Amino acid sequence: MKTIENFIDTALQESLFNLGLYLFFGIAVFVIVWVLFKNVWRWRRIQPRSEGRAHFFRHDILFSVGSILLAGLLTACITMLDTWGYMKLYSDFHAYGSFWAIAQIFFLIFFYDAYFYWTHRFMHHPKIYHWVHKTHHKSTDPSPLTIFSFHPFENLIEFLPFLLLPMIIPIYWPMLFLWQSFDLINNVTAHLGYEIYMRKWLRIPLLKLKTTSTHHNMHHEQFFGNYGLYFTFWDRWMKTEIKDYEDRFKAIHHNRNLIS
Questions:
Q1: pLDDT below 50 — which residues of the chain?
Q2: For residue 73, what are the domain limits?
């Protein structure tokens, strides 16, 4: 009985924490960017003719709340499994060597980027898309409200590495938190609807590997291509990058000169 109570308490706490994240990174950012400063930053709009509609916003909020509740339950599972000794999460920086404590953040980011690319393409299969991934694609002009808007099955697929990896390899708790923080910030910028990356971003070879706001926005707009999460190289290797992506990015910054 005590175990069940602890599980419920953890699930509730995590759900409330995730709700707080959504209120701050989703709703608050939406109000700031899409409402308060929409005229100031209008040149940054990736889709000049907005497809944002009230019913899309309601849809995103509804499914985001569902995702928050499910994430709370899944996080509670991690906590309970860790309590029972099934997880290899640790808090001693030197337990597995300082090199691994630092290097694992790069492993986690690159591993999850590859995992996301292939599962994302899988969910675009015609026999899968309409049942699962279409929920996220309801917003063809995504906004910060879209960041947690997923079908429960897709939410489970995206969460699995957070659940399974700590059962297989030792992971330093702070690095797990850092990875999740990086993922959240990337999620917000990808669905912002406004290009926030600097004009010279695509001119610098190393920075060019990182996806921009335009990169993922075009995926929502056109449904196919630009499947990458953090980086562009999987799309480049698999030839799934939308052909006019770079031209679109440059055109947005060109608009600044025209408007100003």
A1: 259-260
A2: 2-259
